[in-house]
Amino acid sequence: MKTIKIPVLITLFVLGLAGCSKSQEAKMSIVKKDMDNKITKTEEEWQKELTDEEYYVLREKGTERAFTGDLWDNKKHGDYYCAACNLKLFSSETKFKSGTGWPSFYEPINSDNVAVLRDMSYGMVREEVVCSRCEGHLGHVFNDGPEPTGLRYCINSVSLDFEESKK
Ligand code: FE
Fold first, then answer.
1. What is the CA(114)–ligand 1 centre distance, in A?
2. Given 16, 130, 141, 149, which is the most exposed site by the fewest CB atoms within 10 A?
3. What is the pLDDT of residues 83-102, one digit of tens each?
4. Is 154 noted as a catalytic residue in this protein?
């Protein structure tokens, strides 16, 4: 009897572990479709390439203080790129005044260029916005934005590079 019970217990234990990792995955599931051409670098490589503030926001999911970034009040026409991998993410055409102190957009330039993850940190359920190519943290998306989408992509200035469009 003992020889039968032990393998059964081991099997149940392994299944239990698999169950745990599945629920962890569900917590950070990618809601939107992901891109194929990923950029993956070690944390050491990112640390060398990014400034301390960029590393804190993009790789450690930090948040810059409101009204301190250089793009929250930028009214120039142009495009906003990922500060880590240079993927085009937002256009000034969809930027709006949110009053929050962070650059706010009602939609990304292409829905494939950003991914949305469920963020359960700080006892809140929020939707985290990351760059689809390098998975750099950009900010969060909320449902209180203006028409036509009703969405508010609340993005850190530090996560963005702005390029003014030539007219
Ligand atoms: Fe990126």
1. 9
2. 16
3. 999 999 999 999 999 999 99
4. yes
Q: Would you call 97 exposed, middle or buried from its count of C-beta atoms within 10 A (0-12, 13-18, 19+)?
A: exposed
Pairing relationship of beta strands 137-142 and 78-82 according to DSSP bridges: unpaired
The answer for residues whose C-beta is within 8 angstroms of residue 160's C-beta and 6 or more apart is: 71, 80, 81, 82, 83, 89, 90, 103, 138
Within 28-152, residue ranges assigned H as helices are 43-49, 52-54
Q: Express each pLDDT in 105-147 by its tens digit.
A: 999 999 999 999 999 988 999 999 999 999 999 999 999 999 9
Please tell me whether the overall predicted TM-score, pTM, comes out greater than 0.85 for this model.
no
At residue 91, what are phi and psi to the nearest 5 degrees? -115, 150
**Whole-angstrom Cα distance, residue 154 to residue 160?**
12
In angstroms, what is the span from residue 160 Cα to ligand 1's centroid? 9
- 60 CA to middle of ligand 1, Å? 14
Tell how far the Cα of 6 is from the centroid of ligand 1, in angstroms: 48
Please, are residues 143 and 126 in contact by the beta-carbon 8 Å criterion? no
